[in-house]
Specification:
single chain, 223 residues, mainly alpha, 8 helices, globular, membrane, transmembrane helix, transmembrane, Putative membrane protein
């Protein structure tokens, strides 16, 4: 647990200017939108939140690639850390930063008493969940392909193609398999969650995480 905290602190400290600038821009834009330009509906806040969370997602992917590279990564792994600790720290960092963004926008919407306050919060949760899953999947594929291919350009192309095709293909296969099983769902408000589909998806993501952790351990020669 101590190593995870150290990695989190290292990542935050290394890019503190970026995070501070990002939150400042987000806060100023939101305040201007509600209190200066007087947009009581709050629709622009959803746009701001979508753009900022996307920028953070891309930035953290690039940061992840740099930190497992031979140049910058070797310096990071001088300390005695384990592969799962490093990956856990990166996943937690992504979630924490995205949660702060969503919470900031939601809080501003609350104090600004905008009409789309609940929609903003729900959209934020949806973005948080989607980007978290995609972050784990993409980082895992970066490790998998990077373990066997030395050309970074080819790795990037393969990761992009796989990240686009695999989720849809996996969902299609799971749907075909679940046709033969009863439909079991959990209803939250007007939303129905397919429990068996969710379990299958979580199992696949977990398997991908385990594989990437083992490959990262071998690639960087860490425990």
């Amino acid at each position: 647990m101590k190593n995870i905290k150290n990695i989190l602190w290292f990542s935050l400290r290394s890019y503190k200017i970026f995070y501070a600038l990002l939150l400042s821009i987000l806060f100023v834009l939101a305040i201007l939108d509600i209190f200066i330009f007087n947009c009581p509906l709050g629709a622009d806040l959803i746009t701001f939140m979508s753009i900022i969370t996307t920028v953070v997602f891309i930035f953290l992917i690039i940061e992840f690639c740099n930190e497992i590279s031979k140049g910058q990564g070797r310096l990071l792994f001088i300390t005695p850390i384990k592969a799962w600790e490093f990956l856990s720290a990166k996943y937690i960092l992504h979630m924490v930063v995205q949660i702060i963004i969503v919470a900031t926008i939601s809080f501003i919407a609350f104090i600004g008493n905008v009409k789309l306050e609940s929609e903003i919060f729900i959209t934020g949760l949806s973005l948080l969940g989607s980007f978290t899953v995609m972050y784990i999947i993409i980082c895992s594929f970066i490790i998998v392909y990077g373990s066997y291919i030395s050309n970074d350009g080819i790795v990037v192309v393969l990761v992009v193609i796989t990240s686009i095709i695999l989720p849809s293909a996996a969902a299609w296969i799971i749907d075909k398999v679940l046709i033969f099983l009863p439909y079991i769902y959990l209803k939250i408000g007007s939303v129905e969650i397919d429990i068996l589909f969710s379990i299958a998806a979580i199992t696949l993501i977990t398997a991908l995480m385990v594989i990437s952790t083992k490959l990262l351990k071998l690639k960087l020669d860490i425990n």
